[in-house]
């Protein structure tokens, strides 16, 4: 019997942020997932900054029902490979951890939309701004998204990291200016929601900086809610997360 036969709870776990706008945006995504499948129990929690944390969410679930943790994270770094695995192993209930949200073409759809909203035009030089990680697998996930976005836009896209990985976003922007001295530099924010990292992206010398994937006080893109649900269903069928 697979976990899907037991209708496990979908536990959507985000990083957490002190930004009220970021909190609102992520909560709206969790609500959108619940509306897609009103037959499913959906709970939200955080790996850092906010409460409830993962252990508190899992302990609050009814009885010993199984659960599937879906990381609302764009790449699979330390939180996915270590923190969430540790929390799931410590629980007395049956827990699976799904893949992170990215890379995925639906994320590219939203990145492209956000670039359009900020005024991106063909001929602009694009720098993908990712959070960054000390985990090389997460860094490669972000570089892959950069390649996917470049294929979509049919223009080169460089990748810069706000923290923990190189090149840093400021270095990537400087390199783009040297390579494209007559072009506008447009930062594509590969961030799930507003917060400290997005504020750092906005403080760079880029000519334009797009909004993150989730924008507060706007409905979350349906594609993102569908992506969260798909990650849940794949894990419920017993397929291992990459």
Task: Quickly list its features.
single chain, 242 residues, alpha/beta, Rossmann fold, 2 domains, four-stranded parallel sheet, 42% helix, elongated
What does this structure look like?
With 242 residues, this protein is an alpha/beta fold. The protein is 42% helix and 16% strand. The protein has a four-stranded parallel β-sheet, sandwiched between helices. A four-stranded parallel β-sheet has the order 6-5-7-8, with helices on both faces. It starts with 8 loop residues before the first strand and ends in a 6-residue tail after the last helix.
Unreliable stretches:
none
Mean pLDDT figure: 93
Rough outline: elongated
Largest sheet: 4 strands, parallel
The N- and C-terminal alpha carbons lie at a distance of: 22 Å
Proportion in β-strands? 15-25%
CATH topology of the largest domain: Rossmann fold
* Helix coverage percent: 40-55%
SS-derived structural category:
alpha/beta
Strand order of the largest sheet: 2-1-3-4
Total of helices: 8
Order of helices and strands: EHEHEHEHEHEHEHEH
Give the radius of gyration: 18 Å
CATH class of the largest domain: Alpha Beta
Secondary structure layout plus pairing:
Elements: E1 9-14, H1 20-36, E2 42-46, H2 54-60, E3 67-71, H3 78-90, E4 95-97, H4 105-118, E5 125-130, H5 136-153, E6 157-161, H6 169-179, E7 185-190, H7 196-202, E8 208-209, H8 222-236
Parallel strand pairs: 1-2, 1-3, 3-4, 5-6, 5-7, 7-8
């Amino acid at each position: 019997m697979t976990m899907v036969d037991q209708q496990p709870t979908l536990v959507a776990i985000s990083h957490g942020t002190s930004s009220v706008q970021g909190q609102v945006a992520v909560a709206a995504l969790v609500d959108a997932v619940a509306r897609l499948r009103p037959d499913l129990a959906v709970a939200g929690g955080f790996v850092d900054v906010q409460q409830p944390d993962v252990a508190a969410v899992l302990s609050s679930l009814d009885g010993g029902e199984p659960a599937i943790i879906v990381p609302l994270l764009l790449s699979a770094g330390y939180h996915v490979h270590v923190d969430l695995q540790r929390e799931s192993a410590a629980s007395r209930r049956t827990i699976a951890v799904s893949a992170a949200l990215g890379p995925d073409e639906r994320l590219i759809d939203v990145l492209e939309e956000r670039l359009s909203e900020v005024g991106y035009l063909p001929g602009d030089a694009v720098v993908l701004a990712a959070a960054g990680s000390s985990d090389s697998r997460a860094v490669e996930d972000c570089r892959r998204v950069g390649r996917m976005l470049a294929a979509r836009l049919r223009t080169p896209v460089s990748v810069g990291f706000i923290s923990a990985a190189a090149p840093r976003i400021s270095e990537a922007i400087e390199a783009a200016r040297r390579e494209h001295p007559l072009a506008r530099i447009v930062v594509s924010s590969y961030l799930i929601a507003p917060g400290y990292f997005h504020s750092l992206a906005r403080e760079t010398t880029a000519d334009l900086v797009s909004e993150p994937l989730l924008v507060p006080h706007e409905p979350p893109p349906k594609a993102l809610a569908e992506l969260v649900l798909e990650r849940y269903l794949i894990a419920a069928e017993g397929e291992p997360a990459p």
